[in-house]
Amino acid sequence: MYQAQITGTGHYVPDHVVTNYDLSKVMDTSHDWIVERTGIHERRWFEAGKDTVSNMGTKAALNALENAGLEAGEVDFIIFATLSPDYYFPGSGVLVQDQLGIDNVGALDVRNQCSGFLYGLSVADQFIRTGMYRTILVIGSEIQSNIMNKSSEGRSMAVIFGDGAGAVVVQRIEEEGRGILSTHLHSEGKHADKLIVKEPSTRHKGQILERLIKGRNNDIYPYMDGKYVFKHAIKRFVEVICEALDANGFEPSDIDMLIPHQANLRIAQFVQKKLNLPDNSIWNNIQRYGNTTAGSIPIALSEAHHAGKINQGDLVCLAAFGSGFTWASALIRW
User: Fold this and answer.
1) Where a domain ends, among 173, 205, 226?
2) For labelling alongside 147, which of 71, 118, 221, 246 has CA 20 to 30 A away?
3) Which residues, 6 or more positions from 261, have their beta carbon under 8 angstroms from its beta carbon?
């Protein structure tokens, strides 16, 4: 059986920087309030007419391909993770296929929100291990700034999320003990209503948009029970990281770089303390980008890799927790 290795990383974020001070002009909030609760100082918002979920993913993918020394035509398959696709259907993966000019390769969309990139990476790992594909693009991309309630009423969510995309190239290698060592996926759907966008929905008999056009409906905005999510996140993060380490015979002290999903800086700091990791063994960029959901881990991974913080032979752990609830991890020998 083959091994799968990440051979290239890339990311793209919109040019438009929105600071906490900018948000304080349109809602009852402050820089200090946001930093204290989330660690975020600024985030990126897309520019209409310039940025789309798919073309941001394409730009990140092109960066990853360049980093891997490959041409787009060498890609066998595309996996695209997002909660904010360009259209209700089709998915954004086929749009990336077209934008890259790759003829007829398969494209799969993954809808696992904050865990979406790791779910996609797990699928890529299995496709390569079984010999089905040789080179796969795994992309996470989000535009969330336009689905938020940017008023004082919606500030608890609006200040957290940002826009951006990240991508990796996953390729077949035949070197045992290197590459993606294992992936671990979990879900607990009984908590689905704790982090959710309820509308538009196909659950109703009437036309999907008819109910929304008739009047204000707060169910179109993301909802999160913040304390409830935080409590579960800190538990599942540690569990799924230790699961990956145990499966491969490692201890937390063996981790050279932990890339957690950038949900909240306090969550990452709790996990770091629980695992007793030094500052140089964890990468956080939520301060600059906010929570970019499926784009979060690949953006952070690309930044850390391009900054020279991840090198050949390093043990890298990726971990995520999000809506669903879903959570996941991957352990990689770089």
Assistant:
1) 173
2) 118
3) 114, 115, 291, 296, 297, 319, 320, 321, 322
Q: In DSSP terms, which residues pair with 291 in a beta bridge?
A: 161
Instruction: For residues 121 and 22, give the distance between their C-alpha atoms in angstroms, rounded to a whole number.
Output: 35
3-state SS assignment for residue 333: strand
3-state secondary structure of 131: coil
81-116 burial by CB neighbour count: b if 16+ within 10 A, else e? bbbbbbeeeebbbbbbbebbebeebebbbbebbbbb
The tokens for 185 are 């996926």
Q: Are strands 135-142 and 257-260 parallel, antiparallel or unpaired?
A: unpaired
Domain region containing 116:
3-173
Report which of 26, 139, 114, 265 is spatially closest to residue 282, judged by C-alpha positions: 265
Q: 173, 197, 219: which is the final residue of a domain?
A: 173
CA distance 253 to 77: 35
Residue 79 vs residues 8, 136, 215, 291: alpha-carbon distances, Å? 15, 7, 37, 21
Question: pLDDT, tens digit, for every residue of 3-37?
Answer: 999 999 999 999 999 999 999 999 999 999 999 99
DSSP label at 152? Answer: G
Q: 155 with 189, same domain?
A: no
The mean-pLDDT minimum among 195-204, 307-316, 325-334 falls in 195-204
Please tell me the number of Cα atoms within 13 Å of 268 on its side-chain side: 29
By annotation, the residues acting in catalysis are 114, 261, 291
